[in-house]
Design brief:
Length: about 300
Amino acid sequence: MSGEKYQRLIDTAATLAPVTTAVAHPCDPGSLSGAVDAARLGLIVPILVGPKAKIEAVARAGQIDISPYEIVDAAHSHAAAAKAVELVRAGRAEALMKGSLHTDELMAEVVRKDTGLRTARRISHCFVMDVPMYADALIISDAAISIAPSLAEKADIVRNAIDLAHALRVEQVRVAILSAMETINPQVPSTIEAAALCKMAERGQISGGILDGPLALDNAISLEAARIKKIASPVAGRANVLIVPDLEAGNMLAKSLSFLAGADSAGIVLGAKVPIILTSRADSVMARLASCAVAVFVAQARRDNAAKAIV
């Protein structure tokens, strides 16, 4: 049934410590109510960053109670993005959340060289998709940020996705590197890169998951298709992470699952100093809450790793 995996995710996240989250420009009913709904469930503690009068007007019109939450005034969406990133850099927030501004506007502040939130890792996006007909939640990357990633960038995309799977407490991370076919073809660059990524995993350059590829989508998610093609691997037919060749393929895959298979998609950006919650105006309430829940798991994993490093 649609939403079951997300409901379990949200219920578990609600038992963890809430994440103080800078919400950039929550100036429409969807983004403002999404942040407040997540706060009511104990997932986040929002700091609302944007034009104070506009945020209050949206709250009044939608009968949304924002009285418990801090508002940081910023004149417009660009200023709100910059101020939200500044709050993260100052240690006042453990996560960043997109409001009613364009993704490019927020990410421009995130990747800014001197004042942004870059790390040594490539920034990439992951969808965590609840597909009704599939047993596991599917992590799909990258369908929103990396347009035509190089092999080195794909390696970081894989690492980020594996880290996310571990944060979500996936016991065995099975990564399918997707292409149009399961055989290596020099005329199809994605098959060569898939093979290289798998060899990198064998050599320990990528760790934490089992990789296989190239795999066509059917071979990645259908045991029967893998059997017919005589593909024997712990990933084929059982993948829980799908790495796409480029943004176009990933975007079409994610939207096909959403609009043809009734899947919900939660979005998160990784590789920055904090998790970044990306929501869309088309997202359901469940998907918005699930995106916040994913950020809670990522933030908790970072807290746990930091505590281990101290010990």
